[in-house]
Specification:
Layout: E1 4-17, E2 21-28, E3 32-38, E4 57-63, E5 69-78, H1 81-84, H2 87-103, H3 111-126, H4 133-147, E6 175-178, E7 183-185, H5 187-190, E8 202-204, H6 206-213, H7 234-255, H8 264-267
Parallel strand pairs: 3-5
Antiparallel strand pairs: 1-2, 1-4, 2-3, 4-5, 6-7, 6-8
Helix pairs in contact: 2-3, 2-4, 3-4, 4-7, 6-7
Length: about 270
């Protein structure tokens, strides 16, 4: 007996399959990640062609298969056309899609990660200031890592549990960040202790720590109210670049492989952001 089921899902990956079909990977609220065949999707007259493109959200009807399920009906609920019209936004969206594919699970509900991803894609799409793409991307990555259970600890030292106070008056002030320990580390706390073998992968300045500590918020604060005016402008922009690289490397450390789409960010000029 043929078994059919329905889910609401967003297309995160697709590739040609056989002569005219398409193989897609979908993040669904009800069943997590699903790989499915879209019959005839590469034919120009196919009703499923446009509905199974990247970042399209559908109400889907599928048929269970021996190895791969098959999409037989799709009703589009939403899409993000604004992403494809801007190279920086599209690259950021692909980065988030690849990270989500690595973090999400199959065969079980993934409501939280689904809602989080679609919310952040919407924020990227409607973003007016292209210079803030990296800002929103960094926060999106942080939120996804947290909801997957591997978010870095950034409010207190992973070793001593002490809460650090960024010192903006000293340009050389630094705090460590350890992938192994899972977050920030007050370097003097581990020197000469049983934790002295913990690897410090990065050293962050005061403004970088401030940025990192505010990523967990639902909406980012006005940093002009948090840091001295002398650190706004280029120093703050540089801090966002450093934090994105930090979160990328931290995610890759815990996932055990490189995020290929993330490296595309490095090939884009500043004008794309």
């Amino acid at each position: 007996m043929t078994k059919t089921y329905q889910v609401t899902g967003i297309v995160l990956k697709g590739m040609p399959f056989q002569e005219a079909d398409r193989l897609v990977t979908i993040l669904s609220r009800e069943r997590g990640l699903i790989q499915a065949i879209v019959p005839g999707a590469r034919k120009h007259k196919s009703s499923l062609r446009g509905r199974t493109e990247l970042f399209v959200v559908n109400q889907l009807q599928l048929v269970k298969g021996r190895s791969l399920d098959k999409i037989i009906q799709a009703e589009t609920l939403a899409s993000y056309p604004g992403l494809s019209r801007d190279l920086g936004k599209l690259t950021a969206g692909q980065y988030l899609a690849e990270l989500t594919l690595a973090l999400a699970l199959s065969e079980q509900p993934q409501m939280e990660i689904y809602e989080l991803l679609t919310e952040h894609l919407h924020r990227l799409e409607i973003l007016v200031n292209k210079d803030e793409v990296l800002v929103y991307l960094a926060q999106s990555v942080f939120h996804l890592l947290v909801i997957a259970g591997i978010g870095p600890r950034v409010q207190q030292c992973c070793v001593s549990q002490r809460i650090p106070t960024p010192d903006y008056s000293h340009p050389q002030w630094r705090i460590g960040f350890s992938f192994e320990a899972g977050g920030i580390v007050l370097i003097p706390e581990i020197e000469g202790s049983e934790f002295s073998q913990i690897a410090i992968n990065r050293q962050l300045g005061a403004i970088e720590l401030t940025v990192l500590q505010n990523l967990s918020q639902a909406t980012l604060p006005n940093f002009s109210e948090l840091v001295p005016a002398s650190l706004l402008g280029y120093p703050l922009q540089r801090a966002w670049v450093n934090i994105e690289h930090l979160l990328r490397d931290y995610a890759q450390y815990h996932l055990g492989y490189s995020l290929r789409s993330a490296t595309l960010l490095d090939s884009l000029s500043s004008i794309d952001f």
